[in-house]
Amino acid sequence: MQSQDEYISLPKVKPNKIDNQEIDLHWKNLTVTVRMEQSKRPKVTDPLLGSIDEKIILNDVSGYAKAGQMTAIMGPSGAGKTTLVALLSKRYKPGPNTTISGEILANNSKYKRFNDFGAFVIQDDLLMATLTVKETLMFAANMRLKDDLAQRMSRVDQIIKDLNLRGCQNTLVGDNIIKGISGGEKKRTSIGMELISDPPVLILDEPTSGLDSFTAFICMNILKKITINQKRTVIFTIHQPSIDICQLFDRMIILNNGQTIYQGNYGFLLDYCKQVNLNVDIHSTPLDSIMNNLNEAFNQGDNKVTHSNYKIYLEEDVLKFHSQYQGFDKRRTQTSFCQEMNFLMKRQFINYVRSPNLLRSKIFGSVFMLLFLGWLFWQVGKDQPPQDENVSIDDLSKYLNNMRGACFVCGTSAIFSALGPLLMLFPIERNIFLKEENSKMYRVSSYFLSKVLLEVPMNVFIQILFSIALYAAFGFIWELENLILFTVISVSVSLSGNGLGIFTGCLFKDAKQSASLGPILLIPLQVFSGQYANLASIPKFISWVQYISPFKYFLEGFGRTQLNDAIFHLDPTGVELSPWNYYGMHFGMWNCAIVLISIAVMFHVFGGIFLKLLVNKINV
Ligand SMILES: Nc1ncnc2c1ncn2[C@@H]1O[C@H](COP(=O)(O)OP(=O)(O)OP(=O)(O)O)[C@@H](O)[C@H]1O
């Protein structure tokens, strides 16, 4: 029988001059066990799955992937492929009940940060839809390379050439709404974003998922060329590859139930099947036969390509592996904080300008609310009863109720006009941010600050125009001081909405959940503001919500810009009535403005903190 090495199909392309270091990855005896919480019954042990109340996700898995080779990790669903690549790329975040043992080495050295020498391409192509392919790659180059502009541009051109993206380099990436590049081009753009910094190791999770077989082959062929030309270590998980794709693989690792059942060259697979007495149908590939055998064995128990056979015939070679290299130099890919801010703000700005939905919804929403509220409370301020004559309680309460209504809708629309677009777009952008942060493209702080610095002035500008127009429509006192105070309160309320949007966007792990629960969180803020429920009857543990409720303060703040010192005299006795006693509000005009500004700052700070916590909780 031939030795495995005779089956290595040597590359037909001559390697280029390698200015990149070569890194072999090697993992030994990796075991991942999750203890199930629900059961306290006595442990029963299954030889394959471990004890009933614990699940062995990877069971003593060893293997290696060499520089200049493509290593495919395969196996049926639930075999442990994703867990293995997550461990190799240090993206695995174990829960409290998870135990991990074993060793992972890069050139015989342990590593803590995979990003020091490697890059990871996730399964989903999370890209900014409003940028072109070239702009997307340029953004990655700006974030990852410390070279000057000319060098960064030439690197981007090189990647575009390597990944065969020239034809679509100036096309928008696109999404469901914006027509953009194809699925295969998106996948290559995602790969390009990671390749830009020339990582010696590239790990990809399902790089062919969602692609037709021809496009999948093109993508894999490009990866093969890069692997050979630049001596990269390329590892990926893959489901049911075609025979053409299989022939590109240098090594294959097949897992089943968390155990290795084959590891070696693709060419050796046929001989191995013969060795373990597995018949390979002449109409199918050895890989298909193995997968069919696994399926049949699941029902009948007649498994040929087993872990025990792997241990007998193949494991020794794997355990003997020792990289010829020793250690590696860490890549320094992080640019300065200011540079990150600069490029992130530019990208955000382009995104705003090119997002038809965002701009349309902001402008349409503001104009609609202005017309509607202006019509509903047209010149309400002019109905103020005289203060030097007696007025009927009915007329006064009608006026005061209308004023409260006008102030309420004005503040509520300020909150929602800031919150609405964020709830619509932040969940999409959030995943792009999480992906980019996970690959350490930039700092959380620079992303957060750039977002706030771009969104705050835009909200402030729109809100100033909105509140001046509404102020005129409501017929409020045309004095500069009153108008300024009204505008300050209005802007602070809008910024509270902005902060609340970011805060709720980061509060939950699931982006859809945060988008749908965002408006619901406003209900307690509204109900417990003290205006709609008697605070004395609200349980103490929740009554503190009133103090962080913008509703409590903007209702009084807006009202006081018109009625701060007003005293009315009631018919027939002339008894005095302060509107603030009528409303039951006694916080004071400037106090309301100051607290509203503080709440806006507080929601933004909480948003920043939760964003930081979110990146620790989720891997994208
Ligand atoms: N935290 C966990 N708790 C319990 N079971 C888990 C946990 N994480 C993973 N598993 C289980 O471990 C097994 C391996 O999961 P993994 O995602 O690595 O499989 P996979 O081979 O990538 O599957 P697929 O091809 O379907 O993505 C699955 O059965 C999965 O349900």
TrEMBL record:
Its main subcellular localisation, reduced to a broad class, is membrane
Q: Where is the ABC transporter domain?
A: 34-282
Sorted alphabetically, which keywords does the UniProt record give?
A: Membrane, Transmembrane, Transmembrane helix, Transport
This entry carries the following GO cellular component terms, namely:
membrane
The answer to whether UniProt assigns keyword Transmembrane to this entry is yes
Which compartment or compartments is the protein found in? Membrane
Q: Does the keyword Transmembrane apply?
A: yes
Q: How does it sit in the membrane?
A: Multi-pass membrane protein
Molecular-function GO term, any one: ATP binding
* Signal peptide location: none
Transmembrane parts of this sequence: 363-381, 401-426, 447-477, 483-508, 587-615
Q: CDD domains, per this entry? A: ABCG_EPDR
Per its record, how is this protein called by name?
Answer: ABC transporter domain-containing protein
- Please report the organism this UniProt entry assigns to the protein: Paramecium octaurelia
What is the phylogenetic placement of the source species in the record? Eukaryota, Sar, Alveolata, Ciliophora, Intramacronucleata
